[in-house]
Specification:
single chain; mainly alpha; Glutaredoxin; 3 domains; two-stranded antiparallel ribbon; globular
Length: 192
């Protein structure tokens, strides 16, 4: 919690778009997660803070063990991070059907969609080395191999599966990633 004098810190105020005071902004992972401007009743202030404090499900989702991730999803079925982590564990253990169930609740999330696409690609598929590279965190190699697969794939359905896996990797890399930017451009050229 920090209080900032906007008159003395005009650059900071401009950076965060402070238009009026009081301006309250909550940050999570370096980004504004919630905010309000102006005086509000104490009950609304309390509700604001209740909404940004991590829940037990959020804390459990930080873990890497299956039991904690399952418990996080029991407490909050909409806990995307727990679902993605659990699905990765299940995929690694050969439990693809259960991973699919964990991910299907999040059809609009790029990482979940990519993991679902990955499940449709058989382990014997030519794309398997790319998936192994992804699992190993070698995103550059995974993207190169997926680009190669897209270049030789003739089936639009297969191209879409490969594209979804690539988009999931882009999402993991983040919007500022030069690697993602380069492969996003190459993907766009390959599928148009």
């Amino acid at each position: 919690l920090a209080k900032v004098d906007v008159d003395s810190n005009q650059g900071l105020a401009a950076r965060f778009g402070i238009q009026g005071i009081p301006a309250v902004k909550a940050f999570r992972d370096g980004r504004v997660a919630a905010e309000f401007t102006g005086a509000i009743p104490p009950a609304q202030v309390a509700a604001f803070f209740d909404g940004i404090v991590p829940t037990e499900a959020d804390r459990l989702a930080e873990a890497d063990d299956e039991e904690s991730l399952r418990r996080a999803l029991e407490l909050d079925p909409a806990q995307l991070d727990a679902a993605v982590k659990l699905a990765r564990l299940l995929i690694a253990n050969g439990e693809g059907d259960e991973a699919r169930v964990a991910l299907e609740r999040f059809p609009d999330d790029f990482t979940a969609s990519g993991l679902l696409a990955r499940l449709e690609l058989d382990a014997e598929d030519a794309a398997a080395p790319a998936l192994v590279a992804w699992d190993d965190g070698d995103h550059g190699r995974a993207l190169e191999l997926l680009q190669d697969e897209i270049a030789t794939a003739g089936d639009p359905g297969r191209i879409d599966l490969l594209r979804r896996v690539m988009v999931a990797i882009f999402t993991e890399l983040g919007p500022g990633s030069e690697l993602a930017r380069e492969h996003r451009r190459r993907l766009s050229l390959a599928i148009t």
